[in-house]
Amino acid sequence: MTQRWYLVLIFISIYITKCLSADNATDNDYPKLQPDWPYCFQFTWFGPDFDNVTRYNGTCADYLDEKRAVGVPCAAPIVITYNGSFPDLDYLWEHHKTSILCKRSENQRCVKYTYFLNNDIANVTYTCAKVQQHKGGFIDNGCYKQKLDEGKEAEICVCKSSNGIHRPCNKAQSFTNFANILYLLAPIAIINNYLRQ
User: Which residues are the signal sequence here (predicted)?
Assistant: First the structure.
């Protein structure tokens, strides 16, 4: 299989069609967090092209269709920052934690997917996912980069958050060849959401 085929498998496995807005969420819209469960961040930041003056009422599917972004993951909720800068994870954790988390199952890891265009971050998606090397064995942590078409690059960082209501990891330190990674299954919660539609 080519590297592109692996990327298609990866992106399809975490593609989400339903997006919600964290800013419009109330505590009643989300379940109470359980101290004995592990959590990961789950949201998509559309990148620096979207800020407080951007008028956008679309979903992840709308965004991907408009950008013709084949294979780029998107996970609800959509986060757009005031000035287009990278989201302040401390602020999101402090003020919106119940709406930006996924419950990680035992065989899943916290994943951060970053898409670059001309060495600038184009968008970032955080989610829970199962990650496996091409020739077997699951990935517990690390970052993996791959150059795509001209000026495009993808990075995936994987980690395992422990149980408890604390800030999830969703990032890692080391780098290796991105082509050795592929997702086997989309997050369980995402599959359930998709099947209910």
Answer: 1-21
The count of structural domains within the chain is 1
SS3 of residue 13 by DSSP: helix
Q: What is the pTM of this model?
A: 0.72
CB 182 within 8 A of CB 134: yes
Query: Residue 29, SS3?
Result: helix
Residue 115 belongs to what domain range? 3-25+33-196
